[in-house]
Please model this.
Amino acid sequence: MKYIVICLFTLTTFTVQATSYAGDIIHINGEEWNLLANPIEEDSALLAQVLNFLPEERDHSTSNWYGYTAHWEMREGWLYLTGIKTEPYDEVHQRHSSLFLNADTLRHIFSPYYNAEQKAICARWISGELRAGKGKMIRYSHAGFDRNLEIELFMDVKNGQIIRTRLYHNHKTEGVTPLNVSEELSERFPWSRFPELRGKELAVEVKSVCIDEDGCLSDATIYALHVTHTNQSFKDPNHPLVKAFIETMKSVYPWQVLYIYGKRTVEFNDSLIKLSEVK
Model:
C-alpha cells in the first residue's frame, strides 16, 4: 500500500518568522485570479521607481510590505501590467482611501515596455514560472506563497510572452487536520498509564507521518518528546511515552488527505504538538 508522507503544520504559539505574502491580481479570459507572485519585484530598478512614485503615506502590512497590489492581464499570449492599486492615507477624512494608477499613468516608469497605441505595459522584463489560483483554499502555510487554491494555473513566461500553461484542480478529503488534532490527542492519550505525568504537559516534535489513501495513519517519526517544566526529553522510538503517543496518533481517524497537482504527496512544515491531560 502506498502512503502519503506528511510533515505536520506548526501547532504551537512559538514565534513564526515567515509571513504569508499577499499576491497580485491577474485577469485571465475575463476572470479574476490571485497571482501568487509579485512580478514587478523581478526588476529592482523598476521596483524602486514604483515605490518612489507611490504616495509615501500608504497602507502597509506584514503580508504587503511595499503597500501596493499590481494588476495584470493575460492577453493574446502575453503578460501585461494594467495598473497598480494602493491605499494612501486621506488626512482630511483620517482614513485610507483607494487609488488605482492605470498603465497610462505609469508609462514614464515603464517607458521601455509601454505601448502607446494599446496604452498597455507589456511585461517583457519577466521570465520564469508564474502561478495563479482561484477558488477555495486547499492548503495554507504561513510562509511566502506556500499555499494551494482549488484551481491553479502555471504559466511559463519568457520576456513577457506566455509560452506554456498547465492547469491543475486541487482538492482534499474531510478529516482531522494537524491544526486541530492537539485537543483530540489530549483526550485519547493514556494518561493513567503514566501517573508521573500528573499536572504536566507533553510537547512532541513530530517530523512526519504516513497516511494512506483512506485517511488512516500508519506510522509517525518523532524527533523528540519533552515533558514540560522538567528536563526530561525522549528520542528513543521504543520509549513507552513515545510509543504511547504514536499509538494515540494512529487511533485518530480519518486524517485529512490532500491532492495537489494530481498527487497525494504533500509537504508541510514540521510541528510541535502539545498535549495536556483533560480533567
Remarks:
- Confidence is low (pLDDT under 50) at residues 1-17.
- The two ends are 39 Å apart (CA to CA).
- The helical segments are 44-53, 181-188, 240-251.
